[in-house]
Amino acid sequence: MAVLVDADPERLVVRLTGADRLWALSAGVRVPTAAVTGVRPVSRAEAYARGSGWRLPGTFWPGLIMAGSYLSRSTGRSFWCVHRAEELLLVELDGQPYDRLVLEVDQPAEVSRAIARARFR
Questions:
Q1: Distance (Å, whole) CA 119 – CA 31
Q2: Above 70 in pLDDT, residue 1?
Q3: What are phi and psi of 42, to 5 degrees?
Q4: What pTM, to 2 d.p., does this model score?
Q5: What pLDDT, in 10s, does the model give residues 2-42?
């Protein structure tokens, strides 16, 4: 199970693999790279403190998985795919179906830099 992120100057593609596709009820997310307003690694505690909201549709099992679409009054609509990692990738978007993406990826700092290079060059 993994979240794969590809970024180029045209688009940001988040692909879910394995059982994550089932848990999130989604194959992933595609957005124009120009819609990215911010990207950074965050701690699990910070991501949860900013709120997740109501699950629709998706999966939540405390301490095990949070995947799918969530709606919150304070943060809008977000897409999560998180298992147990302590450091996550937060991608903030503007003008898209999701206002933010919260993802568990290998090496979130490197993925964050790659997205930033594609977006803000």
A1: 12
A2: no
A3: -135, 160
A4: 0.92
A5: 899 999 999 999 999 999 999 999 999 999 999 999 999 99
Radius of gyration in angstroms for the set of CA atoms belonging to the chain, rounded to a whole number = 13
**Full DSSP string of the chain:** --EEEEE-SSEEEEEE-THHHHHHTSSEEEEEGGGEEEEEEEEHHHHHHT---EEEEEEEETTTEEEEEEEETTTEEEEEEESS-SEEEEEEESSSS-SEEEE--SSHHHHHHHHHHHH--
Alpha carbon 5 to its chain centroid, in Å, reads 10
Q: Which two tokens stand for residue 44?
A: 């699990």
